[in-house]
Write a structure and sequence with these properties.
Number of helices: 10
Order of helices and strands: EHHHEHHHHHHH
Distance between the termini: 67 Å
Number of strands: 2
Structural class: mainly alpha
Strand order of the largest sheet: 1-2
Largest sheet: 2 strands, antiparallel
Length: 278
């Protein structure tokens, strides 16, 4: 059956973790706590940026995309995995599998482009302070955010559109969640073009993001050194490693890029103090 061409696939099977029956619920509740903590951190950061007027600046408007993207990534992956663990389910509708894969790849690309945009903003603020307000206008910042999400959407969409030309002859997704390479293995046609486009797209996204970040931070480093601004120098295993990118970043990003920024940290502390005194 798996070697015959199928015109339509309705359901596919995933390759779950092997978890002893006694371990299912402890792992499930641990995963739920991780998920809720990530949601809390990212929602807190979003709320601070939305409701605190002093955070309505170009830097935080760009930063707003980061926790939003993290929420997309962890929500697209973790709830389904946890549900499968506790119910023992291996099946998923093909359309939902494609949607999960698309959102996870959107998340991965979004991280790259958002960090590049944040690096450019810091470059303008530190290296071009006199031109910062004129260059980083509301129109420019909106254009940068639209470019980040638009470019990410178009590049990822192109990968999945290419898959529609291939007939499907398998139903077993050899992963604990759905992604583009796993979906591509369901095809029985020639996938050479898809592999080439996928590699080139990934390389282009990585190269663009890393280039912008390297340029920005090297220029910032040079500017700091030049003006002396330094003040302080401060099989299951494979599946788990594949999941870490969708778990670690959504938890750490709001802490690293949010709470370590003085305005957000001070605003959060002020809100906590006001609530206690009230």
């Amino acid at each position: 059956m798996e070697n015959e061409s199928m015109s339509v696939i309705n359901v596919v099977s995933l390759d779950p973790f092997y978890i002893p029956p006694r371990g299912r619920y402890p792992i499930f509740f641990l995963g739920v706590m991780i998920y809720l903590f990530a949601i809390f951190c990212n929602m807190t950061l979003l709320a601070l940026i939305i409701f605190e007027r002093k955070l309505h600046t170009p830097m935080y408007f760009i930063l707003f995309s980061l926790p939003l993207n993290d929420l997309v990534g962890i929500t697209a992956m973790l709830p389904k995995v946890l549900s499968d663990i506790v119910t023992g389910t291996r099946k998923v509708y093909y359309q939902l599998c494609v949607l999960q894969a698309f959102l996870l790849h959107m998340y991965g690309g979004g991280v790259l482009f958002i960090l590049a945009a944040m690096a450019f903003d810091r470059y303008m603020a530190i290296c071009r302070p006199l031109r910062y307000r004129s260059v980083m206008s509301v129109r420019t910042v909106v254009s940068i955010v639209c470019l980040v999400w638009g470019l990410d959407f178009v590049l990822i969409l192109s990968l999945f559109v290419l898959q529609t030309r291939l007939p499907k002859c398998r139903t077993a997704v050899m992963n604990v969640f759905c992604d583009n390479p796993s979906l591509l293995k369901l095809s029985c046609g020639n996938t050479a073009l898809n592999n080439i486009v996928g590699l080139l797209t990934t390389a282009a996204m990585q190269l663009l993001s890393v280039s912008v970040q390297l340029f920005s931070y090297i220029r910032i480093l040079v500017a700091c050194i030049g003006s002396r601004r330094f003040k302080n120098v401060s099989p299951d295993l494979q599946k788990i490693m594949g999941m870490l990118i969708f778990l670690v970043n959504p938890i750490l990003n709001p802490i690293v890029y949010g709470l370590k920024m003085s305005e957000i940290r001070n605003t959060l502390l002020a809100l906590v103090k006001n609530k206690r005194s009230g």
